[in-house]
């Protein structure tokens, strides 16, 4: 009798664990679908100080901007030993705005980066 109870308990645990995995997989798929919905209608280039490499620093900025929402694409123009680096952000102006983008850049990596200037935003229809 004890063996049956243990066996039933194990099967129940395994089935519920599989169910949770499927749920988290579905949530991840929905989040990825939501991210791909962003269609940029504007772009701006920020000149950013505090970057020491394209992969690490640029990646941190890119990740921060993309995760916050409203951003379709981020391009990093890193020039070795330049005082500032160019970060071009393609975004949906109905979902985010320039002050929010600037704030996100300056909060990335615990405040390592400073936006020193920006270009005039361009819009597309």
How would the blueprint of this fold be written?
Elements (H helix, E strand, L loop, with lengths): L1 H35 L5 E8 L6 H13 L2 E7 L7 E7 L6 H10 L6 E5 L3 E2 L2
Antiparallel strand pairs: 1-3, 1-4, 1-5, 2-3
Give me the CATH architecture of the largest domain, please.
2-Layer Sandwich
- Secondary structural class: alpha+beta
Q: Please count the beta strands (DSSP E, at least 2 residues each).
A: 5
| Rg, Cα atoms, Å | 22 Å
What is the helical fraction, as a range of percent? 40-55%
User: Could you name the CATH topology of the largest domain?
Assistant: Alpha-Beta Plaits
> Span between N and C termini?
71 Å
Helix and strand succession?
Answer: HEHEEHEE
CATH class of the largest domain: Alpha Beta
Q: Count of helical segments?
A: 3
Mean pLDDT across the residues is: 84
Strand residue percentage: 15-25%
Overall number of domains = 2
Largest sheet: 5 strands, antiparallel
Unreliable stretches (pLDDT < 50, length at least 5) are 21-25
Describe the global form.
Answer: elongated
């Amino acid at each position: 009798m004890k063996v049956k109870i243990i066996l039933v308990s194990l099967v129940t645990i395994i089935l519920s664990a599989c169910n949770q995995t499927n749920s988290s997989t579905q949530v991840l798929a929905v989040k990825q679908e939501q991210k791909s919905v962003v269609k940029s209608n504007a772009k701006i280039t920020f000149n950013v100080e505090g970057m020491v490499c394209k992969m690490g620093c640029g990646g941190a900025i890119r990740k921060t901007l993309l995760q916050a929402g409203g951003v379709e694409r981020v391009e990093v123009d890193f020039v070795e030993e330049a005082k500032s680096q160019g970060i071009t952000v393609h975004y949906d102006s109905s979902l985010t705005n320039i002050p929010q983008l600037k704030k996100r850049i300056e909060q990335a990596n615990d405040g390592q980066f400073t936006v020193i200037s920006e270009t005039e935003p361009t819009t597309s229809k």
